[in-house]
Each structure stands twice: as structure tokens, then as C-alpha cells.
Amino acid sequence: VLTGGEELNDRKTCFPAVCLRAVSSRVKALQVDSVQRWMEDLRHMTEVECMCVLQAKHIGAEEEGGHQGELIVASALGAGGEHVVTRNNLQSLLRRALVVSTELGKMFQRLEKGRWQRVHSTAVRANCHVRSLVQEYGAARSTPPEMQKYEKSLLEKCMELTNITERYRCLHTDDEFFLKSMREAIHEILTNVSDSFSNMIDMALANEIQVLIKQVESSDSVYTISSAISNLLSLTQDGPQLCSIIAKEGAVVALFKICRQDCFSDLYAHALRTVASICCVEEGIKQLDKVDGILCLADILTEENSDEAARAEAAAVVAQITSPHHTSTQHLASFLESMHDIVTALIKLCATASCGEVFLLASAALANITFFDSMACEILLQLNAVQILLGACSDRQRVDTPYSKDQVVTILANLSVLGQTAPEVLQEKGIERLLVLLGETPSSPSPSEGAACERVQQKAAVTLARLSRDPEVARTAILLNAPARLIKLCRSPAERNNSDSVLVACLAALRRLAAGCPDGIEPADHQQLIKPRLVDSFLLCSNMEESFV
């Protein structure tokens, strides 16, 4: 099955270029002094004995110290530092949550192994961390009444878990039935603690996200809004669960309000990148559809004065919401109304892209669009898409990775279904380009790059097979020695990175060429690769070894 944006689905999941820039930013974040990193982590690694004594004690501040703390906070907020406080709260909350989740995970493992002493010590440690988290979060921000109920219930369950593990720790018995019932009782309480903790963290995160969204909606400061958007974008990188919370709290609505105000045009790209990340989940797409986000995207893409970065990020959102991986398709009904304008703007962006990332995002959006409506393919042919895309393949500034080539060959494969595509491909010397793509190899040992190269080879073979229904294309391919390249891919597993999908596509292309020009295939190859059933040729080639020495 051809897919246009597999590596693009998780913008964190969905765009390779965005994945790369996300990884780059994370690498930069990790490139800090190791002692500083250790000091930050140490703050959350507390001694159990000390915490047991201190957790219930109130640490009061002297009057002078209290005034001094108020002055520090006031000065920070006065300098536009509320976003700093929110970001710190979020980072602290996520770190604490990670520590607790790790301890609970250890408890499940030790419980299964029957290591009762370790189960109890881990329960005590988890209890301390939970209490510390609750107290620290309550000191940083007022806790909503509903969340306070969750906190109280969670603390009670943590104490129950500590008590029950302490009772069973002192028991020494080999009674299998008793041990099993004991394990089940602790497992049930531990599961309740895990679920309650997860719910409480979700509520706390929602509370912090609401603060960020309020800053986006109500602030007139570009700096404050930009910082809030940055924090939202950072949160989207932590998985789809957080993206769902962000979407449900109304972030998509707030971000599109920014994108509809000319005074915030400098923030369009930043806001749209965040929208694209949120739309990796169905809830984000639903929110986008509710606020007519597709119309806003069309306006940004078609506006001549729009910044290229904003148009590229608008293309990223289009690629995200048209991904074949999404199960919901209701939003595509409104997309079809603006499809002609969007497709026109995207192919124009491909033609004028100043760098590989811009071209990647625009071409990925086009690749996805060509899957769900044949009208898009007809529009692209009218806009000289074949010439633009094949020309881009010769431009290292625009097409510089296998990921970009994957998008180009996906579009060509979908266009090749139409009969009028073949003459244009011939005119632009596209068969030569397809043969080059059949030889695509990774430049690094990266698994994702290797997978992208396999998709390029597979789709190039599919495109060649479809185009070869035209006799002139088949003759041209024979003259360019296409069968030799296809045969090599079939017979040599290393050439296709041991990919079965590439093998099937190459066998299909080879048989299509043989049907049009049977004289172009050697008798021995015809006997093994053309004459048998496809499945027999597949089994023959998939079991071949490169060397019999």
C-alpha cells in the first residue's frame, strides 16, 4: 500500500524534517553541564527516611523572608515573568510525575517477582514522592477544588499501599494460595494508585495548560504570547496524551485566533507549527474543523504577502490533517471546498521553496491530498506539477533527503493512474529520473532513512509499472535498460535492503515491460521472473542468497 506521509504522521510522530528539528532542539537542551544536570535531578531524588519525618511538617518563613519572597515573585511577574513561572511549574510537574511513574513501574515488576522487601521500600519511596509533588504543586499554584478531592483520595490510597506492603513484608510463608491472594490484593491497590495518580496529573497539566491558553488569548504582548506558544509546542512533544489534553482545553481555537489577526503575523508560523503537532490526535482535528481552520489555512497559503515560513507551517498542518493514518474523515468534507486553492498554493510553494524543509512540508501535503481525491491529481496536471516535481529532484537545495524524494515519487505514482501523465513524464525525461530513484540508497545507518529509501524504490517501481501501460513509455524504459536495474533489484536482496515490498513492485514493473516489449528481456530472466506465477517468482527471489561460496 502506498502511503505519502508515513514518516510525517507524528510531527513529533509525523514530519521527518520536523522530527529532525525537534531532535535537534532536544540535543541542544541536553548539551548542558553534567554537574548542572545532576543537581537538577538530585532535587527530586529524596532520602526516604528524611521525607518520612519531614513530609507532615509545615516549614514556615519569617516575616522578613516572606516579604522578600513576595518581592521576588512580584518583580518576576512585573517583568512579564508569568510565563516563566508557568513553564517552571510544568517542568517540575513533569519531572515529578516521571519519578513517581518510574517507582510505580518498579513496584509492578518487583511484585511479580515476589520481592516483598523491595516492594515495601519502593511503596514508601513512591508515597513520599507523591506527597512531595502534591505539596510542591499546591505551594506553586492554587489547586482547584475538584483536583483537591483527587489529591486527598490519592494520598489515602498511597498510605493504604504502604501499610499493606509493610504487613506482608514481615510474613514468611510458602503457601502458594496465600501468596497469590496477597499479590492480587497489592496489585489491585497499586493499579488504583496508578490510575488515580494519572488522573491527578492530567488535571494538573490541564490546569497549567489553561494558564498558557489564557496568556495566548488575553495578552497583547507578542513576547508573552510567543513564550506561551513555545511552552505549548514543547508539551506536544511529550506524546499524544498531552496533545489530547491541550486540544480539549481549547488551544487550537486560541492559536487560530492569533492566525486571524494581522497584528500577530510574525507569530503565524510559530502558532501553526503548534497546531500541526496538536493535530496528531483526532481531538485536535475536530477542534480545527469547528473553528473553520481549513479556511484560515487556505487564506495563509494563498496570500501573496504571507511569509514563506508561515506558508510552510500551514502546509505542515494540511499534511497532518490529510494523513491516511487518521480514522476520522469528517473534516475532509470542508477541505474539499478549498482544495483547488490549497493544491495550487502548495505546488507553487514546491516550485519556489528556498530550502529542503519547506519543499518537504509542501510536497508531503500534496502527497496526502492525492490519495483521497482524484480531482487533486487532475488539478496538479493542469498546474505542470510533473515538470515542477521532476525539476526539483535535480535541485539539491530543495530535494536533499530520501524523505523529500519519497513525497515526490508518491505524487508521481498517484498521478500515473491518469493516462495523460505519461506524455508529460516522457517530455520531462521522467523515466531517467525514475531509474535514478530505483537506485536510492541510505547515506547513514539510520533505520528511518533506510525505510525511506525502500519506499522510494518501491514507489518508483510502481510508477514505472503504471506508466508502462503506454507503449512509448515501455519502449523508452527498455532503451534506457530499465529491465536490467529491475532484475538486479529482484535478484540481489542487498540492493533492495531485503525489502519484500520493493521485490513485489519490481516484479510487477518487469512483467509490465515484458508485456509491452517481450524482446527486451533475456530468456533466462523471462523463464524465472516473467513466466511463473508472481508468487513463485517472489518466493524464488526472496530466498536467494547473494553468494553461494
From TrEMBL:
GO biological-process terms attached to the record: apical protein localization; asymmetric cell division; establishment of mitotic spindle orientation; regulation of asymmetric cell division
Gene3D superfamilies: Inscuteable LGN-binding domain, Leucine-rich Repeat Variant
Family matches, as Pfam families: Insc_C, INSC_LBD
CC per GO annotation: apical cortex
Protein name: INSC spindle orientation adaptor protein
Name of the gene this protein is made from: INSC
GO molecular function: cytoskeletal anchor activity
Taxonomic path: Eukaryota, Metazoa, Chordata, Craniata, Vertebrata
Domain Protein inscuteable homologue C-terminal, first and last residues per copy: 96-549
Record domain Protein inscuteable homologue LGN-binding: where: 30-76
InterPro entries according to UniProt: ARM-like, ARM-type_fold, Armadillo, Insc_C, INSC_LBD, INSC_LBD_sf, Inscuteable
